[in-house]
Design brief:
2 copies of one chain form a homodimer.
Chain A: H1 2-5, E1 8-18, E2 23-30, E3 36-43, E4 47-54, E5 66-74, E6 79-83, E7 86-88, H2 95-107, E8 109-120, E9 131-141, E10 153-159, H3 160-166, H4 175-187
Parallel strand pairs in A: 4-9
Antiparallel strand pairs in A: 1-2, 2-3, 4-5, 4-7, 5-6, 5-10, 8-9
């Protein structure tokens, strides 16, 4: 059956747009019925997202875990968005390096443990990269925020129940964050 | 605090790439500290995904629901991908129209009920569109498949437990589908 579904690479690729963060290629592939087509592929660096968990502490009256998030303007939606700390994997970095760096830069925290809980393609239809989700535990505030010139953000601490209520709505409108939260719930055996 | 986070539109927008499905604009915005920057925005049509649920039928030995999915080659990942029926909202269509059409074209089924269970931005960082998820119930096979010239796909029926096991891994590697499945679990009060 795969022969009826698989497209073949012809080796012909043209870069049709070069941008500051990602490029667009036309990748010429041969369809299962033998016709050649230029298909649009967005070549992007891999992404990482870190879910920084601050555990429940019932003896101090904190009955559920909370999470560090960042609130920032996003240029695609043209609106404010509340997200877990996230960013692209820079050249020479591993995904884990990028996770450590983004957590530090966007929250000022360092984690004793960074556990990979998900690795996925943001959209196989046109993206060629992967998005890896890490759960950060054992958090300590070690640094001041260290933001890029164009980053303006506010750090939030959001309870588990507030995330369950809001995720996917209002300022929590990022599909990437919803799938990160799915990995968290799966890791914690809630689903 | 919003004044420290909000970017302002300057009204200046240039289309920097025009593609067959989406375009790229440089949207000039003023940062919270007053500098103007061209920001990359991907202008894409809205998307819909349909989760076609075939209910459990214990009297016939079917102990759990199953779902219609499609297996197809995806040009971003360059690999086969198992996904719920999905596509873009065509000009003149509502999201619901597109959901009815995609379900019929990719599976040959018609639903008595299409329930909107999620509406989200695929990636607020650079996408300007929305992705709406519908749950399809009361399914009847009414049509043959009706595929675009460049669509080659295989229809699958996948059990609920198989989706829970595989979602986000292997051929089930689409972040968009993971967030659709999150909406389904939330709608069914599993999470």
């Amino acid at each position: 059956m795969n022969r009826k579904l698989m497209w073949k690479d012809t080796g012909k690729v043209e870069q049709v747009w070069k941008g500051p963060v990602f490029n667009i290629d036309a990748v010429h592939r041969q369809s299962p019925d033998g016709r050649e087509h230029p298909m649009v592929v967005c070549r992007a660096p891999d992404w990482v997202t870190v879910i920084p968990e601050l555990p429940a502490d019932p003896s101090a009256g904190k009955e559920e875990p909370s999470f560090l998030m960042v609130r920032q303007f996003r240029h695609g939606s043209g609106s404010l968005s509340c997200e877990f700390p996230a960013g692209v994997v820079d050249p020479g970095e591993t995904s884990l390096d990028a996770a450590v760096r983004e957590l530090r830069e966007e929250t000022g925290y360092t984690a004793d443990q960074l556990i990979e809980i998900g690795n996925i393609n943001p959209n196989p239809a046109f993206m060629d990269n992967t998005s890896t989700t890490y759960l950060a535990r054992g958090l300590r505030k070690t640094h001041d925020l260290d933001l890029d010139d164009n980053e303006f953000l506010e750090r939030l601490e959001v309870s588990s129940s507030a995330i369950m209520e809001k995720m996917g709505t209002g300022e929590y409108h990022s599909a990437i964050m919803v799938q990160c939260w799915y990995w968290y719930l799966k890791y914690c055996r809630t689903i």
